[in-house]
Automatic annotation (TrEMBL):
<dbReference type="Pfam" id="PF01189">
    <property type="entry name" value="Methyltr_RsmB-F"/>
</dbReference>
<keyword id="KW-0808">Transferase</keyword>
<dbReference type="InterPro" id="IPR001678">
    <property type="entry name" value="MeTrfase_RsmB-F_NOP2_dom"/>
</dbReference>
<feature type="binding site">
    <location>
        <begin position="107"/>
        <end position="113"/>
    </location>
    <ligand>
        <name>S-adenosyl-L-methionine</name>
    </ligand>
</feature>
<keyword id="KW-0949">S-adenosyl-L-methionine</keyword>
<dbReference type="Pfam" id="PF17125">
    <property type="entry name" value="Methyltr_RsmF_N"/>
</dbReference>
<dbReference type="GO" id="GO:0003723">
    <property type="term" value="F:RNA binding"/>
</dbReference>
<dbReference type="InterPro" id="IPR027391">
    <property type="entry name" value="Nol1_Nop2_Fmu_2"/>
</dbReference>
<keyword id="KW-0694">RNA-binding</keyword>
<dbReference type="InterPro" id="IPR049560">
    <property type="entry name" value="MeTrfase_RsmB-F_NOP2_cat"/>
</dbReference>
<feature type="binding site">
    <location>
        <position position="175"/>
    </location>
    <ligand>
        <name>S-adenosyl-L-methionine</name>
    </ligand>
</feature>
<comment type="similarity">
    <text>Belongs to the class I-like SAM-binding methyltransferase superfamily. RsmB/NOP family.</text>
</comment>
<feature type="binding site">
    <location>
        <position position="158"/>
    </location>
    <ligand>
        <name>S-adenosyl-L-methionine</name>
    </ligand>
</feature>
<dbReference type="InterPro" id="IPR023267">
    <property type="entry name" value="RCMT"/>
</dbReference>
<feature type="active site" description="Nucleophile">
    <location>
        <position position="228"/>
    </location>
</feature>
<keyword id="KW-0489">Methyltransferase</keyword>
<feature type="binding site">
    <location>
        <position position="131"/>
    </location>
    <ligand>
        <name>S-adenosyl-L-methionine</name>
    </ligand>
</feature>
């Protein structure tokens, strides 16, 4: 007996007709392995066959032990299945990536779409990545910290809190929690959990999420709605429901030669990825333009953000590229930097949302001394030449990431940046012949080396 639910197979057979056999066969095959590189941390393209719809995506021939690759921990790439990289085409074809955009990724953990969006936006744009589940918001913040972009804010709010930000966003991505039909090949639990009732429950939750967030989209702004499921209830039907209440336009994306299926139900245009047609998992995306006026928001200064003390600002400025474009502020007991152009926006976000992180945590002050933060080591703005660095090989890099005792050569005292193959991994504090490992305890690798 097949491990896939009967009702699911029946619906998919109707949808795919003669292709159904090939589709089922593909579900029993191996899933392709793909990664997406961080262009700000890679001078050269990674090896491997390119993902056709993404400038940063690559297929790998085999699945390496990602955990034991130090470059992953330094944010040089993100492991992501290929179909979901298609949002890149919505951004490239339907937005002006040179303009300063406010972008919301509403259901963002663990951060696949958010890290991708940051690689696409100009540095004048702002990305707000939200995740409603607290523990998942921490994972999101971790992945975004490793990616290293300053124009990024992580929030942990319910979608309805975004109603307090009418017309704030130019682009909104809703990668909605779904019944996961497109993941059945890899995720056996999704197949076990699937039922028509579960699909109906997901569809009503998705409607609520979209309706809650909708007021925060600007007039003429675009919503990129996606799921990793095939059924119409969670896709077209939700968007038809949205169209009944609001003035919207569905937008086309060019998919020339990629074997992606363009579907149309009434005027909803959708893009479906089936694993027997493309190298990737199941995925659905639709792009919707809002054609209604949204009230505009009055920006107010934020009193929670205290400017960094003047006597240390010069030092902090020497640590990064383009210090003239950022402001340094103190939040709780940390010093941060954040794009100057968006400080008023950050004020608004603080007022209405639970902000988990904003910009780059740079340092803490202890007994009048500045201690560099891990996020600074990960930052794409770090001015490396102003720090002492220690280049390490693979074994030493893994010892560092596991927080095992290090066997580094004797050095000058002070903070050193640990670098593996040109990718920064974090700080050590050298006491001359001993080193304090400053890699975050909660992120250390627990896996033993196998070779
Ligand atoms: C498909 S996943 C997002 C994947 C992510 N965009 C990425 O690319 O890595 C959907 C997310 O929605 C979150 N979620 C669950 N229920 C939600 C709700 N009621 N409102 C908003 N988000 C919710 C889940 O915790 C999950 O992180």
């Amino acid at each position: 007996m097949s491990r896939f639910p009967e009702a699911f197979q029946e619906e998919t057979r109707k949808r795919l007709g003669n292709d159904f056999g090939l589709f089922m066969e593909s579900l029993n095959g191996a899933a392709p392995v793909s990664i997406r590189q961080n262009p700000a941390k890679n001078a050269l393209p990674l090896p491997g066959k390119p993902v056709p719809w993404s400038a940063f995506g690559r297929y790998l021939e085999t699945r390496p032990s990602f955990t034991l690759d130090p470059r992953l921990h330094g944010g040089a790439y993100y492991v992501q299945e290929a179909s979901s990289m298609f949002i890149e085409q919505a951004f490239r074809q339907l937005t002006d990536l040179h303009a300063p955009l406010n972008v919301l990724d509403l259901c963002a953990a663990p951060g696949g779409k958010s890290t991708h969006i940051l690689s696409l936006l100009s540095d004048q744009s702002l990305l707000v990545s939200n995740e409603v589940i607290r523990s998942r918001a921490s994972v999101l913040a971790e992945n975004l910290q490793k990616w290293g972009y300053q124009n990024s804010v992580v929030t942990n709010s319910d979608p309805d809190h975004f109603q307090s930000l009418p017309g704030f966003f130019d682009v909104m991505v809703i990668d909605a929690p779904c019944s996961g039909e497109g993941l059945f090949r890899k995720d056996h639990e999704a197949a076990e959990e699937w039922s028509p009732q579960h699909v109906a429950l997901c569809a009503s939750r998705q409607k609520r999420i979209v309706a809650d967030a909708w007021p925060a989209l600007k007039e003429d702004g675009i919503l990129i709605y996606c799921t990793c499921t095939y059924n119409e209830q969670e896709n077209e039907d939700n968007l038809l429901w949205l169209r009944e209440q609001h003035d919207v336009e569905f937008l086309k994306v060019s998919i020339d030669g990629w074997n992606i299926q363009e579907t149309k139900k009434n005027d909803v245009i959708g893009y479906r990825f089936f694993p027997h047609r493309v190298e990737g998992e199941g995925f659905f995306m639709s792009v919707i333009r809002k054609k209604q006026v949204s009230p505009s928001l009055r920006l107010k200064a934020n009193r929670d953000l205290t400017p960094a003390p003047a006597k240390i600002v010069n030092t902090l400025q020497s640590w990064i590229h383009h210090p003239e474009r950022v402001s340094f502020f103190q939040w709780k007991d940390l010093l941060y930097f954040f794009p100057e152009a968006h400080t008023l926006h950050l004020g608004m976000l603080h007022q209405h949302l639970k902000v988990v992180n904003a910009g780059i945590a740079t340092a803490t002050v202890k007994h009048d001394k500045l201690i560099p933060e891990h996020a600074l080591a990960m930052s794409t703005d770090l001015r490396r030449e102003n720090f002492k660095t220690l280049s390490v090989g693979h074994d030493e890099a893994i010892r560092y990431l596991r927080r095992d005792p290090l066997t580094l050569p004797e050095t000058d005292k002070g903070y050193h940046l640990i670098v593996f193959e040109d990718v920064a991994l974090g700080w050590v504090n050298s006491l001359g012949n001993r080193f304090n490992n400053m890699y975050p305890v909660e992120w250390r690798i627990r896996m033993q080396k196998t070779s």
